[in-house]
Amino acid sequence: MEISREGNALHLKVKESIIQLIKSGEYKPNTQLPTEAEFCKKYNVSRTTVRTALQQLAVEGYVYRKQGKGTFVSNNKVKQILTTTVEQFSEQVAMQGKKPAIKVLSLEVIQADPFLAEAFDINENDPVNKLVRIRYVNEEPLQYEIAFLPWNKTPGLNKEACETSLYKFLESHFHLKVKKTVEHLDLILADQTISNQLNIDVGSPCFSLETHAYLEDGTAIEYSKTIYRGDLVNFVIERNY
Amino acid sequence: MEISREGNALHLKVKESIIQLIKSGEYKPNTQLPTEAEFCKKYNVSRTTVRTALQQLAVEGYVYRKQGKGTFVSNNKVKQILTTTVEQFSEQVAMQGKKPAIKVLSLEVIQADPFLAEAFDINENDPVNKLVRIRYVNEEPLQYEIAFLPWNKTPGLNKEACETSLYKFLESHFHLKVKKTVEHLDLILADQTISNQLNIDVGSPCFSLETHAYLEDGTAIEYSKTIYRGDLVNFVIERNY
């Protein structure tokens, strides 16, 4: 059933076997895995083979490492539900029995560059709110987000409001109701900034989600770019036909 | 505006600059980029720096390499639209001015393992159709897909039918209408099988989309796992609130 079971490289066999042991519950979340030496013996393979398998398992989010302590089994990934009835981030995370938090890194007013001017149908150099946030789950940084909102529609946006739901605040404070979003989901590699902010290695694969949000009358109200840790997140999409 | 512009490593500056030149149309799709030596001179950086930048651009799908010929600018990524009004793969691709194709690698009847038995509410060892396909765009392999369908609902499924739309065939031939799908989108690294099938390096980041499809009465009719090349695909999600 596992596609990769058909792979023939030795480290893939080891990797698949460990995945099965995690899925079957033999290795339980947050417990320590056997050492590299123990895996070498168990599978009768080299240290390099075991290390490659463990590295891939870490990138794919099955295990995580603690400096000087060894390798542990991950909790389940955080599911991001992409449907038309979207619960807030905090509610989604809480429903999965995890602890959510949002931290505002900065909120400033910048001048629209040509891209933002076109996105919001404003003039170049018009003021735009730029909001940078990190979202955490169980104290681990999960997503790094830069959002832009035209200042003329959201004057006096304040930091505290942005530590909860931005869309709810837009509605309660500015009477702006988001009616439609168009999102693009891409795969990217972490650069230095993302690496620092999300506490992952430079080059780690991540999801990049670009969002354009619109009001009832079609006015663009937000443009954002969110980077999700690929090892911690997966997306759930429900469709009805 | 580009998040990675804030990065400080030299290769990221080079990478960002090349991305801007591609986006602005200075470097056009399918034309050859300057050589590594030319980039070294242009940016006054080392060969290693240029190589790292170009490697990342290739993984992220901005450029591609031709053996012995150099580096070329990619076409736009193939958009996969994830909304409730889904056009068929072929139609989506054709609408983007690209040439689609579907190839059936195998179609066989296997025995349900415990996972499939539970998914389809059948007994273990009951017959299940296993369908392996590759989808191409402009002759490039784009996605590798393994689908399972309970044999009792799809007896005599045949290869030719699977080279077009499976869901349309289910409807026209078996009177089975898919009403709902639940999908999980993950990030994985290519193993040897995926590498061979999709013509990418082992370890390349890919999207993995797991789908459960249901009929009107809630019966599970299909389980599939599709691996998409991360350098060639992005997903578009439209939501109305």
What would your notes on this structure say?
2 copies of one chain form a homodimer. The first copy, chain A, is of the alpha+beta class. Chain A has 2 domains: 10-73, Arc Repressor Mutant, subunit A (Orthogonal Bundle); 78-236, Chorismate lyase, CATH 3.40.1410. Chain A is built from 7 helices and 10 strands. In chain A, the strands form 3 sheets. In chain A, strands 4-5-6-9-8-7 form a 6-stranded antiparallel sheet. In chain A, strands 1-2 form a two-stranded antiparallel sheet. A two-stranded parallel sheet of chain A has the order 3-10. The model of chain A is unreliable at 1-8 (pLDDT under 50). At the A-B interface, strand 7, helix 7, strand 8 and strand 10 of A face strand 7, helix 7, strand 8 and strand 10 of B.
